[in-house]
Amino acid sequence: METALFFVTLGAMLLVGLALDALGRAVRLPRITLLVLFGAAIGPAGFALLPQGGDGWREPISIFALAMIAFLLGGELSRSALRAHGRAILAVSLSVTAVSFAVVAGGLLALGAPLALALLLAGVGLATDPAATRDVVREARADGPVSKTLLGVVAIDDAWGVVAFSLLLGLVTAGASEAAGTAGLAAGVSAGLWEVGVSIALGLAIGLPAAALTGRIRRGEPTLVEALGVVLLIAGVSLWADASPLLAGMTAGVVVVNLARHHDYPFHEIEHLSWPFLIVFFVLAGATVDPGAAAAAGALGAGYVVFRVMGRVAGGWIGGRLGGMRPREARYMGLTLFPQAGVALGMALAAGAAAPLYAETLIAIAVATTVLFELLGPIATRLALLRLGETGGEGDAPAEEWEERGGGI
Questions:
Q1: Which of 163, 192, 175 is closest to 114 using CA atoms?
Q2: What pTM was computed for the model?
């Protein structure tokens, strides 16, 4: 009976997702926002229509979706793209990371938050949602300097965020135990850097043979089976090694797109499978909505939202200008970087384990604000790209055109 219910639930999610996709096109709302709202409606806080055990689906689906999106985003960082937009990508990603952290931490301290809590929340605020951002760009068929820079930024800014957050955990863990002293601080920082190094090493270990071996069965054209196999390997090995599927997937994508010179077509066959998985991913994310968590967040949660928005806008503008973007492009850059999803929740859980005193507050704020940013972030991204005149370009083809070419969305 449970197996039957599992298939019925997945089938219903996919069909409703298809309907919401059509609705989003009609009302000009990103489909991700509608999927998150649908998830909230059928989750425990709504009509409680998800079967028991639905939480168990979230981890494998989330890991696969993150690995897949990271792999695709890494594929955007080709030599030609980096030559054209590399300066802007690096400047924006570093600026948004640094400015967002400073504004959120400083603002929360001004509101009276304890130092450790302010630092940890600022670290959580560094996380973005590459899946949502990439889908908005693709759905809007956006093409232009900001769109290309945005895809590069979300491909690497979570890497900076993971490194910074790992260092923060080391600092907070050492500060919680005076007896640990310098040795405790070094151990905490080393553990975080070890995770980053392992993730990158895994990406290289999978990406290098993938670059050499894929695209041989059909000359120059990677097949769907090859793409799926690579992404499943990334997801599985990352889970086994307790590494980051984002960093591992991104590294593998960068390696393949730059070293597989025999490829005549981009390694994007996995896009044919991406949307069904992302439908389930975003619906289950919406199902985590807890109104009680939003109420518990209170003034501190509201401050976190305001300061994160300020940090993103200011960091995007500063980085854009340093990266050579025009003033109008730099002004809108930060507006495209609001989405926040599973990475932030994972960070909050890790932070709660490192600082149990603040665990409840950290998780409550992360859950409540993630829902808010997942609802409003894609709208802000699409609006910014629309104002810049980059939507409806020559980017990815819509579903109908993909189907005419032989499959996928």
A1: 175
A2: 0.68
CA neighbor of 278 nearest in space, from 92, 26, 30, 44: 30
Q: What CA–CA distance (Å, rounded) separates 286 from 134?
A: 18
Q: Angle of helix 271-286 relative to helix 130-139, nearest 10 degrees?
A: 120
Rounded to whole angstroms, how far apart are CA atoms 117 and 119?
Answer: 5
Half-sphere exposure of 45 (CA within 13 A, CB side): 20
- CA–CA dist 231, 160 (Å, integer): 22
Q: Map tokens 């980085």 to a residue.
A: 319
Return per-residue pLDDT of the chain as tens, 409 residues. Answer: 567 877 888 888 889 888 887 887 777 666 777 787 788 788 777 777 777 665 566 678 777 877 887 787 777 677 776 676 677 888 888 898 899 999 999 999 998 888 888 888 998 888 887 777 878 888 888 888 888 888 888 877 777 777 777 677 767 766 555 444 555 556 656 666 777 788 889 999 999 999 888 888 777 677 788 888 898 999 899 888 877 787 788 889 888 888 887 776 656 666 667 778 778 877 877 776 666 666 666 888 899 999 999 999 999 999 988 888 888 888 888 888 888 876 676 677 667 766 777 877 887 787 778 778 878 888 898 888 888 888 875 444 333 333 333 333 2
Write b or e for each residue in 175-214: b if 16 or more Cβ atoms lie within 10 A of its Cβ, otherwise e.
beeeeeeeebbeebbeebeebbebbbebbebbbeebbeeb
Q: Answer for the pair 234, 67: CB distance below 8 angstroms, yes or no.
A: yes
Q: Are 283 and 351 within 8 A, CB to CB?
A: no
Label residue 219 exposed, middle or buried (CB < 10 Å: 0-12, 13-18, 19+).
exposed
Residue with tokens 């967040």: 297
Encode burial over 49-75: b for 16+ CB neighbours within 10 A, e otherwise: ebeeebeebbeebbbbbbbbbbbbbbb
What CA–CA distance (Å, rounded) separates 174 from 188? Answer: 7
Burial environment of residue 364 by CB neighbours within 10 A (0 to 12, 13 to 18, 19 or more): buried
- The string over 81-100, giving b where at least 16 C-beta atoms fall within 10 Å of a residue's C-beta and e elsewhere, is bbeebbebbbbbbbbbbbbb
